[in-house]
């Protein structure tokens, strides 16, 4: 068994890595939304975050590695969509740095066309990504949803909401639509919020 990161945001970051092309497949806001939702989902599954009137509220005190719980505790009640959007770019950097410190990835600065700097992310051991993908893939098949590992179920739900094709190609999303809905229902409100945020963004861009 290959060791994988414990945190759900770290797992989702690695699942956005294309081992064939050896690069990240999701950049910008969408990856940030997925990672914010992963942080919210982790808190929700562990009972550190609850829900009242369709809004997240603090639950049992505990670790808050990305500061999300502190933000919610200090704020008036706001929607899940609000917290998915909040600091979505900052969490990409935070999770990336966490993975660098843990020795999971290497980040180098390159220049496109010799002019434009960008970050090249390389996963040091592609087997880690394959192990995570295997967990998500098995969540789509086999055992009853109630018996699926909670993080594997959440990985599928978040990948579907954020359109992570490295995890769920279009054909799998269509073939396993009902199963994905069941895994999403089990994983809490954050994943559906990602889908709504992305749809709102796409509608705004189309209207603009």
Automatic annotation (TrEMBL):
The keyword Membrane applies. InterPro entries: GPP34-like, GPP34-like_sf. The keyword Transcription regulation does not apply. It is a peripheral membrane protein. GO terms for molecular function: phosphatidylinositol-4-phosphate binding. One of its GO terms (cellular component) is endomembrane system. It comes from the Bacteria. Pfam families: GPP34. Keywords: Golgi apparatus, Lipid-binding, Membrane. Its main location: Golgi. This is GPP34 family phosphoprotein.
């Amino acid at each position: 068994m290959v060791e994988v990161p414990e945190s759900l945001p770290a797992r989702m970051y690695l699942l956005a890595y294309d081992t064939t092309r050896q690069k990240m497949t999701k950049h910008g806001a969408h990856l940030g939304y997925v990672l914010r939702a992963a942080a919210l989902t982790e808190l929700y599954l562990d009972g550190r975050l609850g829900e009242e009137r369709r809004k997240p509220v603090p639950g049992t005190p505990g670790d808050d590695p990305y500061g999300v719980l502190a933000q919610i505790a200090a704020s008036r009640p706001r929607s899940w969509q609000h917290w998915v959007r909040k600091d979505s770019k900052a969490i990409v950097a935070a999770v990336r740095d966490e993975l660098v410190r843990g020795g999971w990835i290497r980040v180098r600065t390159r220049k496109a066309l010799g002019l434009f700097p960008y970050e090249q992310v390389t996963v040091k051991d592609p087997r880690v990504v394959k192990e995570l993908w295997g967990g998500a893939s098995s969540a789509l098949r086999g055992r009853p949803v109630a018996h699926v590992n909670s993080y594997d179920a959440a990985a599928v739900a978040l990948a579907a909401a954020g359109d992570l094709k490295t995890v769920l190609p279009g054909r799998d999303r269509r073939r396993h639509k009902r199963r994905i809905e069941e895994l999403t229902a089990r994983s809490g409100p954050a994943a559906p919020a990602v889908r709504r945020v992305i749809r709102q963004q796409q509608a705004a861009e189309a209207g603009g």
